[in-house]
């Protein structure tokens, strides 16, 4: 059975030309997505791939309608071939149901592998040249002058104990996680926020007002899409409960960390 897939980048664009061509090619069903070429989420394509069975043929208008990149296209078509599902592009010389089409696809796969090797070699050459000049990679140390000024303001406001962390972050136009980073940079001891009673001195003038923070260390192994959003949610939840959360994350096998 032939199943078609059409995609346009914006809602202002029309997929009528693609749909008409796919139906003329004998597609019994046509799935459609509205998504940019680089966007990962394509619900209709995901549903289509789940419905495909052996000996089915996936028909597309052009190769760029399905793959986000050459690498993604090669991986996707390779998965289809393993499932014995054919791919037919109406405007490209690709038809994996024929020997000639499979040959062309294998050439594309070789080009994708060549591209990856070139990128890897250029990256390594750049790192080697940087090291030869005495440059070391990694996160730059310290703060910019503008960030230093914001950190100083955060230090002053936090020590006054008149505003909550959320209020200080809003006043300085930074996130709470960034605010905590600035405070740690300034060497500020972070404890739970307590609003002083009317007519009584705040915690900054009386050491007994601030309880010693309770610390719990938790190590999690997660598979997530947005690390910044997760750490922000953790910090927000901790602040709502008058707690302080210090979180960092590192991707195994790489130098990436948050």
UniProtKB/TrEMBL annotation:
Keyword Ion transport: no
CDD domains, alphabetized: SR_ResInv (cd03768)
Region (Disordered): 192-213
InterPro entries, A to Z: Recombinase_CS (IPR006118), Resolv_N (IPR006119), Resolvase-like_N_sf (IPR036162), SSR_resolvase (IPR050639)
Active site residues per record: 9
Domain Resolvase/invertase-type recombinase catalytic residues, every copy: 1-134
Keyword set, alphabetical order: DNA integration, DNA recombination, DNA-binding
Pfam families, A to Z: Resolvase (PF00239)
Family annotation (PROSITE patterns): RECOMBINASES_1 (PS00397), RECOMBINASES_3 (PS51736)
Protein name: Recombinase family protein
Lineage, uppermost ranks: Bacteria, Pseudomonadati, Pseudomonadota, Betaproteobacteria, Burkholderiales
């Amino acid at each position: 059975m032939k199943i078609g897939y059409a995609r346009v980048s914006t809602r202002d664009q029309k997929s009528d030309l693609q749909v008409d061509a796919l139906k003329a090619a004998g597609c019994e069903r046509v799935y459609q997505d509205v998504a940019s070429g680089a966007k990962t989420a394509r619900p209709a394509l995901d549903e289509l791939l789940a419905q495909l069975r052996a000996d089915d043929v996936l028909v597309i208008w052009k190769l760029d309608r399905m793959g986000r990149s050459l690498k993604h296209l090669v991986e996707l078509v390779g998965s289809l071939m393993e499932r014995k599902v054919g791919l037919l592009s109406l405007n490209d010389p690709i038809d994996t149901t024929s020997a000639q089409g499979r040959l062309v696809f294998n050439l594309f796969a070789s080009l994708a592998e060549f591209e990856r090797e070139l990128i890897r070699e250029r990256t390594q050459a750049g790192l080697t040249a940087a090291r030869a000049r005495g440059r070391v990679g990694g996160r730059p140390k310290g703060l910019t002058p503008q960030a230093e000024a914001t950190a100083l303001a955060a230090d002053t406001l936090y020590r006054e104990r008149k505003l909550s962390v959320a209020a200080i972050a809003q006043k300085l136009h930074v996130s709470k996680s960034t605010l905590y980073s600035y405070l740690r940079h300034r060497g500020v001891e972070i404890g739970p926020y307590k609003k002083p009673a009317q007519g009584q001195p705040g915690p900054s003038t009386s050491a007994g007002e601030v309880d010693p923070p309770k610390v719990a260390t938790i190590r999690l192994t997660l598979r997530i899409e947005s690390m910044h959003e997760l750490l922000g949610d953790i910090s927000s939840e901790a602040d709502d409960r008058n707690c302080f959360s210090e979180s960092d994350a590192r991707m195994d096998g790489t130098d990436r960390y948050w």
